C-alpha cells in the first residue's frame, strides 16, 4: 500500500506593518478603485529592515515546530528569489536559527515564484521513499518593484513554512502533476539589480497561457475534470491575476458549481488581499486563506496553479484531510493580521529605503520594538547578525 504524503502543518509570518492601498492610491494620484478592484489589493505588508527572508522564515517555521519534530526533519528546502547571498543558502542560516540537527540537508531553490512548489514536490517525493522523515519547505520573499512604479501596488512580503510528512493532517498531495517551462522574459532580476524588471501585462498573459496548458495536460493525464474539484488556488502576486485564471475555466462548470468555485476563490484570496505579494509563498498563503475562510470537507479535491516568471508553471492537486483545522493556528494568524499597524506613505517610503546597504559596511539596525521571535540586528564583518528574543 502506498503511503499518504502531503502537507501536515502550515505556518505564516508577515511583519506587523502595512500600507493601506487607498493611501497609496491617493499619494500616486490613482483612483483607489483601480488598486482595490482593478488590481484587487486592500493592504500591503511593509517589511522593516530588521526582517529578511531568513528571519521571516524562522518566524513562520517556529509556529509549527516542536522539539520532537525538529529531530525528525531530514531536509530544509527554502524557495526564495530574495536570497541574501549568491553562494550560501538561506536554508543553512534557517536550520541553524531553528536549532535543527546537523543531520539535515539544507538547500535554497530558485525559479522566481515557483521555488516553493519545487520544494514541495521534491519533499513529497522524498517522504514517499522515506516515510519516517519530515521535510520543512519554505516560501519566503520580499516583493520590491520600486517607489512610483506600475508594480508598486503589487509589492508585499512574508513567509510560509510547510511541514511535509507521511499521513499529513491538512492535505494529501496526489502524485500526478503537470508542469511546463519556457524561456520567457516577463520578469527577471539580474544580479546587479535590487528591483525586478517586469512587463506585467505580458506576464499576466504568459501566466494565463501556462495555466491553460498545464490544466489541459493534467486533465489528459488524470481523466479528471472541473467537476472533480471543490476549489482552485492560484499563485497570487495580486488577487486579480488568480481571478482571471479562474474565469478562464469557469464556463466549463455547471452554474451551481461555478457559484461554489467562485465562493471558494473569494476565501482563497482574502488573506493575500491584505498582505500583498509574497512571490514564492503566494500560492501557499492562498491555500492557507482557503483553509481559514472556506467551508471545506474531508476528501474534497483542491487544485493548485503555481507560476514562476521566466517561466515555469505547474498544476497539481491534493485531498483535504479530516483534521485539517489542527494543522495551523487560525486564531494566531487572525491576531497576526489584525494587530498590524498602518504606516503612512511617508513612513513606508522611508522604510523602503532603509534596507541593509550594499557596501558591506558594519551596521547596527534600530532594534527594540521587534514583535517577532527572530530578527536581524545588523551586519558585522560582512556577516548578518541574527537574534532571537
Ligand atoms: N476602477 C476599477 N478598475 C480599474 C480602474 C478603476 N478606476 N482603473 C483601472 N482599472 C483596472 C483595469 O481595467 C485593469 O483591469 P484588467 O486587468 O482586468 O483589465 C486593472 O485595473 C489594472 O489596470 P492597468 O491599467 O492594466 O494597470 P497598470 O498599467 O498600472 O499595471 C500591473 C498593473 C498589474 C500590470 C502592474 O501593477 C504590474 O506590472 N505588476 C507586477 C506584476 C508582476 O509582477 N507579474 C509577474 C509576477 S507573476
From TrEMBL:
<dbReference type="Pfam" id="PF01154">
    <property type="entry name" value="HMG_CoA_synt_N"/>
</dbReference>
<feature type="active site" description="Proton donor/acceptor">
    <location>
        <position position="81"/>
    </location>
</feature>
<feature type="domain" description="Hydroxymethylglutaryl-coenzyme A synthase C-terminal">
    <location>
        <begin position="177"/>
        <end position="253"/>
    </location>
</feature>
<feature type="binding site">
    <location>
        <position position="244"/>
    </location>
    <ligand>
        <name>(3S)-3-hydroxy-3-methylglutaryl-CoA</name>
    </ligand>
</feature>
<keyword id="KW-0012">Acyltransferase</keyword>
<dbReference type="InterPro" id="IPR013746">
    <property type="entry name" value="HMG_CoA_synt_C_dom"/>
</dbReference>
<feature type="binding site">
    <location>
        <position position="31"/>
    </location>
    <ligand>
        <name>(3S)-3-hydroxy-3-methylglutaryl-CoA</name>
    </ligand>
</feature>
<feature type="domain" description="Hydroxymethylglutaryl-coenzyme A synthase N-terminal">
    <location>
        <begin position="4"/>
        <end position="167"/>
    </location>
</feature>
<dbReference type="InterPro" id="IPR011554">
    <property type="entry name" value="HMG_CoA_synthase_prok"/>
</dbReference>
<feature type="domain" description="Hydroxymethylglutaryl-coenzyme A synthase C-terminal">
    <location>
        <begin position="268"/>
        <end position="352"/>
    </location>
</feature>
<dbReference type="GO" id="GO:0006084">
    <property type="term" value="P:acetyl-CoA metabolic process"/>
</dbReference>
<dbReference type="GO" id="GO:0004421">
    <property type="term" value="F:hydroxymethylglutaryl-CoA synthase activity"/>
</dbReference>
<feature type="binding site">
    <location>
        <position position="145"/>
    </location>
    <ligand>
        <name>(3S)-3-hydroxy-3-methylglutaryl-CoA</name>
    </ligand>
</feature>
<dbReference type="InterPro" id="IPR016039">
    <property type="entry name" value="Thiolase-like"/>
</dbReference>
<protein>
    <submittedName>
        <fullName>Hydroxymethylglutaryl-CoA synthase</fullName>
        <ecNumber>2.3.3.10</ecNumber>
    </submittedName>
</protein>
<feature type="active site" description="Proton donor/acceptor">
    <location>
        <position position="235"/>
    </location>
</feature>
<dbReference type="Pfam" id="PF08540">
    <property type="entry name" value="HMG_CoA_synt_C"/>
</dbReference>
<dbReference type="InterPro" id="IPR013528">
    <property type="entry name" value="HMG_CoA_synth_N"/>
</dbReference>
<keyword id="KW-0808">Transferase</keyword>
<feature type="active site" description="Acyl-thioester intermediate">
    <location>
        <position position="113"/>
    </location>
</feature>
<feature type="binding site">
    <location>
        <position position="277"/>
    </location>
    <ligand>
        <name>(3S)-3-hydroxy-3-methylglutaryl-CoA</name>
    </ligand>
</feature>
<comment type="similarity">
    <text>Belongs to the thiolase-like superfamily. HMG-CoA synthase family.</text>
</comment>
Amino acid at each position: 500500500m502506498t503511503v499518504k504524503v502531503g502537507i501536515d502543518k502550515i505556518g505564516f509570518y508577515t511583519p506587523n506593518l502595512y500600507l493601506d492601498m487607498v493611501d497609496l492610491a491617493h499619494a500616486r494620484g490613482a483612483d483607489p478603485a483601480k488598486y482595490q478592484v482593478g488590481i484587487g489589493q486592500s493592504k500591503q505588508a511593509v517589511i522593516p529592515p530588521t526582517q529578511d527572508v531568513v528571519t521571516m522564515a524562522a518566524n513562520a517555521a517556529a509556529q509549527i515546530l516542536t522539539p520532537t519534530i525538529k529531530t525528525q526533519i531530514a531536509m530544509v528546502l527554502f524557495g526564495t528569489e530574495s536570497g541574501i547571498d549568491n553562494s550560501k543558502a538561506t536554508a543553512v542560516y534557517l536550520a541553524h536559527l531553528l536549532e535543527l540537527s546537523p543531520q539535515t540537508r539544507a538547500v535554497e531553490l530558485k525559479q522566481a515564484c515557483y521555488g516553493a512548489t519545487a520544494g514541495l514536490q521534491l519533499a513529497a517525493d522524498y517522504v514517499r521513499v522515506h516515510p519516517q522523515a519530515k521535510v520543512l519547505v519554505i516560501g519566503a520573499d520580499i516583493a520590491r518593484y520600486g517607489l512610483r512604479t506600475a508594480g508598486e501596488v503589487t509589492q508585499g512580503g512574508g513567509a510560509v513554512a510547510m511541514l511535509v510528512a507521511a499521513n499529513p493532517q491538512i492535505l494529501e498531495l496526489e502524485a500526478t502533476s503537470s508542469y511546463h517551462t519556457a524561456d520567457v522574459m516577463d520578469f527577471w532580476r539580474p544580479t546587479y539589480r535590487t528591483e525586478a524588471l517586469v512587463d506585467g501585462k505580458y506576464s499576466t498573459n504568459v501566466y494565463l497561457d501556462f495555466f491553460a496548458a498545464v490544466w489541459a495536460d493534467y486533465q489528459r493525464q488524470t481523466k479528471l475534470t472541473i467537476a472533480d474539484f471543490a476549489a482552485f488556488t492560484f499563485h497570487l502576486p495580486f488577487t486579480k491575476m488568480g481571478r482571471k485564471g479562474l474565469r478562464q475555466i469557469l464556463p466549463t462548470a455547471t452554474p451551481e458549481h461555478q457559484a461554489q468555485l467562485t465562493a471558494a476563490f473569494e476565501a482563497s484570496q482574502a488573506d493575500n488581499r491584505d498582505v500583498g505579494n509574497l512571490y514564492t509563498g503566494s500560492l501557499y498563503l492562498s491555500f492557507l486563506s482557503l483553509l481559514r475562510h472556506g467551508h471545506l470537507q474531508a476528501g474534497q479535491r483542491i487544485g493548485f496553479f503555481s507560476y514562476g516568471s521566466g517561466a515555469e508553471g505547474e498544476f497539481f492537486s491534493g485531498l483535504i484531510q479530516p483534521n485539517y483545522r489542527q494543522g495551523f493556528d487560525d486564531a494566531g494568524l487572525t491576531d497576526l493580521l489584525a494587530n498590524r499597524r498602518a504606516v503612512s506613505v511617508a513612513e513606508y517610503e522611508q522604510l523602503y529605503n532603509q534596507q541593509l546597504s550594499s557596501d558591506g559596511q558594519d551596521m547596527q539596525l534600530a532594534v527594540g520594538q521587534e514583535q517577532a521571535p527572530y530578527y536581524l540586528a545588523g551586519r558585522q564583518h560582512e556577516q548578518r547578525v541574527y537574534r532571537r528574543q
